[in-house]
Design a protein that fits this description.
InterPro entries: ABC_transp_permease
Membrane topology: Multi-pass membrane protein
CATH class: Mainly Alpha
Subcellular location: Cell membrane
Number of domains: 1
Largest sheet: 2 strands, antiparallel
Organism: Oceanitalea stevensii
Biased composition (Polar residues): 1-12
Length: 342
């Protein structure tokens, strides 16, 4: 290679051509945005494609219903994001939602709406505390511990109701939990606020830094003197509150509560979090990605319904999107990710 060739090679940036003065060109800038926010691009592209195929997609009634569905998954996913960023997992989501919802339905005739919601959140925190203690101090792996408590909580829910459905007769409660501001559902607004709070907790607090640190390398976090055990318990409690908050709105939407109302719901929640870019191995979490992940699955399900796709094909397509999104994210992150820095 000649000296001229060497100079030419050294002066050419590895990411592609740039404008004079070293500033990136428009095409390169666009590509960087697309590669970094590929999930947002996919969501926008999906919305446009479905809107062109079925203009009814853009109807305010349909969009409102779509946001309702995203809210339930999203509220629980905020708590799950905190857990997974810490290298933890909670499979007892369905059990916590069932017990919290039944508590609301049971006490509503005898107390105020605020009292019923407060009780549900308190129960969610208490059940999350049980999970946190089992994982942190009894030293049971999160997968096993929360799988066990899933069945425990579901059993409590069925015993409480004797296997029957508990109706919610309060019209005020239903109006609050299913109301809209314009065409935007109240649950979605609560989801947005919860996601912002979750972001601040994860990225702007000592607690969040501790969670990401032990999610990346627990031994190093302990040696650094971080309060790992306390943070583990607290993150399970916070997640339990998020699950209970989802239960409050799910119960209002269904106007009832029962033991099997959220069976399998934990898989939807984990899928939204992982597709959004939170690393299952811990150390990195993104609340924006979780919001986009919840919206992406809601739009996909809504689109398949509008297009008249049979339900069994919906499972296939949803699973394909999940695997593809995770594969793309893993490929992008493998070369550049510094664990614990996200």
């Amino acid at each position: 290679m000649t000296t001229t060739d060497q100079l030419s090679t050294a002066q050419t940036p590895p990411d592609g051509p740039t404008r004079s003065g070293g500033r990136p060109g428009f095409a390169e800038a666009v590509w960087r945005v697309v590669s970094q926010q590929y999930l947002v691009v996919a969501l926008v592209a999906l919305c446009i494609a479905v809107g062109l195929a079925r203009p009814a997609f853009w109807g305010t009634g349909n969009l409102s219903n779509l946001l309702f569905q995203a809210s339930f998954v999203g509220l629980a996913a905020v708590g799950m994001t905190l857990l997974i960023a810490g290298g933890l997992l909670d499979l007892s989501v369905g059990g916590i939602i069932a017990v919290s919802s039944i508590a609301v339905a049971t006490v509503l005739p005898h107390t105020t709406i605020g009292g019923a919601i407060g009780l549900a959140l308190l129960i969610g925190a208490a059940l999350g505390l049980v999970n946190g203690l089992l994982v942190t101090y009894v030293k049971i792996a999160p997968f096993i511990a929360t799988l066990g408590t899933l069945y425990l909580f579901l059993g409590l829910a069925f015993i409480w109701t004797s296997g029957s459905v508990v109706p919610i007769t309060s019209s005020n409660y239903r109006a609050l939990t299913t109301g809209t501001v314009g065409w935007v559902p109240v649950p979605f607004l609560v989801f947005a606020v919860t996601a912002v709070v979750g972001y601040l907790l994860l990225k702007r607090t000592y607690f969040g830094r501790t969670v990401r640190a032990f999610g990346s390398n627990e031994r190093a976090a302990v040696l650094a003197g971080l309060p790992v055990n306390r943070a583990k318990v607290v993150v399970f409690v916070v997640a339990g509150v998020c699950f209970a908050l989802a239960a409050v709105f799910m119960a209002g939407r269904l106007a009832s509560a029962e033991g099997n109302m959220a069976m399998g719901f934990e898989m939807d929640v984990i899928a939204a979090v992982v597709v959004g870019g939170t690393a299952l191995r811990g150390g990195r979490g993104t609340m924006l990605g979780t919001v986009v992940g919840a919206l992406l699955f809601a739009v996909l399900a809504n689109a398949l319904n509008l297009l008249g796709v049979a339900s069994y094909w919906q499972y296939v397509l949803t699973g394909t999107v999940l695997v593809a999104a995770i594969a793309i994210g893993a490929r992008r992150a493998s070369a550049t990710e510094v664990r614990g820095a996200g």
